[in-house]
Design a protein that fits this description.
Blueprint lengths: L31 H39 L13 H6 L3 H32 L5 H9 L6 H11 L8 H13 L9 E2 L8 E3 L5 E3 L8 E7 L27 E7 L23 E6 L2 E7 L5 E4 L8 E4 L19 H26 L3 H9 L4 H12 L1 H16 L3 H6 L11 H9 L6 H30 L1
Parallel strand pairs: 4-5
Antiparallel strand pairs: 1-4, 2-3, 3-9, 5-8, 6-7, 6-9
Length: 470
């Protein structure tokens, strides 16, 4: 019986057994080349990323760290105050107003923009000129906030001659309401055969001693010649007492002004014109019992009066200022007005993003719903919106981040007297630091607060992007 010799591993080229290291140590690892290649790729990536990392550190990381440190010092930057600036920040009424306005922005603007973008994205899918419409809606994004602010500052102008919105508002108002006959005019008091006096409500009235059959001349001043109606004729001359007729009070309302200072106040002189369209009332015991409107020569007749004493009154509506439109940039509406300008700029952005999500949505689901008898509203509410929920969330959160930092529009659109009423956190940070406050410690604290408010939304958005990419 022969003994079997033990197996000897074949020798390698260097005389060592295969699978053993030349030094007799552990076996050589077969992935060394791959590891070396991986390390090489990482070094190359680090070289290319280094400039970006340097810029990121210089433009983002360093300013953040510097602001956090600066917020712990006083306005001069020499005395350490710890959390004093943060305490002062929440005691300042202007900062609290800015926080409230920022909260209004965060609640209103992103919700409106997301809703408008969704509606427009759905509707544009049903028209042939969808591309042209999207292009027009997206064009405001190409305009700087400075230019957009100037556009809307003029659009919201109170003067209807300049502000487009108030020109429209005044035009619509004047269609349904009468314009004042002679805004800013006034009656000449204590002159003429029946002197008038101004009453508390702005009207002018004679003494209550006029009986039917009497004629009265009422002089008006304060009417620029260019505002006298074109149809105005020379004023009707005075009549004798009793010429008006039984049960009638008559007279003339005229512009008591002669070029060159000629003429006598309270008396109709040659060349003076009547004022048509003026309302005249006959008043008895404080109540208007008759009314007439002056003709082209300023004459009027109030008929159907019983015997007794009356006063003639020119109501205040004849002299009231015309409707001047809406105070868009007043304290009550300045923030909604600026949000409106923001909507004009960003609606196209929301529509395009949501439209991209809508185009990627599976159409077989919609067709199946239509075949099951669902109408368009049911499809929109139960299918389109749920399927677009991830896109809508990303758009909403992106807009939340953006509105927290809004500054340009507020600074440009809001007039100086109402700037505090439109104030937001970014604006308050600038005002405190550079706009006259010169307290960069408190301004840095406001910047840190703004950062803390934005960071959660940014983290949420990044996670959504990562989840969607998987």
């Amino acid at each position: 019986m022969s003994a079997t010799a033990p197996a000897v591993p074949p020798a390698s080229a260097g005389g060592a057994p295969a699978g053993a290291s030349p030094a007799g140590g552990a076996p050589a690892r077969g992935d060394d080349p791959r590891r070396r290649a991986e390390r090489r790729r990482r070094r190359v990536a680090a070289v290319f990323l280094l400039p970006a990392l340097l810029l990121l550190g210089a433009l983002v990381a360093y300013p953040i760290l510097f602001s956090v440190g600066r917020s712990l010092f006083d306005a001069s930057g020499t005395r350490f105050v710890g959390a004093g600036n943060y305490v002062e920040m929440f005691r300042d009424p202007a900062t609290l107003k800015a926080i409230r306005n920022s909260a209004v922005w965060v609640v209103v603007a992103p919700a409106l923009l997301t809703g408008l973008g969704l509606i427009l994205a759905v509707l544009t899918e049903k028209v042939r000129w969808a591309t042209a419409f999207k292009l027009l809606m997206f064009m405001p994004m190409a305009i700087s906030f400075l230019a957009a602010g100037i556009i809307f500052r003029i659009t919201y102008e109170q003067d209807p001659e300049r502000g487009v919105l108030n020109a429209v508002a005044v035009g619509v108002h004047d269609v349904f309401a009468d314009r004042p006959a002679y805004p800013g005019a006034r009656a000449r008091e204590d002159a003429g055969d029946a002197p008038v006096a101004r009453e508390e409500d702005g009207s002018y009235a004679t003494a209550a001693d006029l009986s039917p059959g009497r004629t009265v001349s009422l002089g008006i001043v304060g009417v620029p010649p260019k505002e006298v109606p074109a149809e105005a004729e020379p004023a009707a001359g005075p009549r004798k007492a009793g010429d008006a007729g039984e049960g009638v009070l008559a007279g003339t309302v005229y512009l008591d002004f002669s070029p060159g200072g000629r003429g006598e106040p309270g008396r109709i002189d040659s060349g003076e014109r009547g004022l048509p369209g003026m309302t005249v009332q006959a008043v008895r015991d404080g109540k208007a019992v008759g009314e007439a409107t002056t003709a082209a020569d300023g004459s009027f007749r109030i008929t159907g009066l019983e015997g007794g004493s009356y006063a003639l009154r020119l109501p205040a509506a004849n002299f009231a200022e015309p409707y001047g439109g809406i105070s868009w940039l007043g304290p009550a509406l300045v923030t909604p007005a600026i949000i409106g300008a923001y909507l004009w700029i960003w609606t196209g952005f929301a529509m395009v993003l949501i439209g991209a999500g809508l185009s990627a949505m599976p159409r077989d689901v919609l067709e199946a719903a239509r075949m099951d008898g669902a109408n368009e509203w049911q499809i929109f509410r139960r299918i389109t919106v749920p399927l677009l929920a991830p896109v809508l969330t990303v758009v909403f959160v992106t807009l939340v981040i953006n509105v927290m930092k809004v500054f340009d529009l507020v600074y440009i659109i809001a007039p100086g007297p109402v700037l505090q009423d439109a104030n937001v956190l970014a604006m308050q940070m600038w005002l405190v630091s550079f706009g006259g406050g010169n307290n960069q410690g408190l301004g840095s604290a406001l910047g840190v607060l703004l950062l803390l408010l934005v960071v959660p939304a940014m983290v949420f958005n990044i996670r959504r992007f990562r989840r969607s990419s998987r």
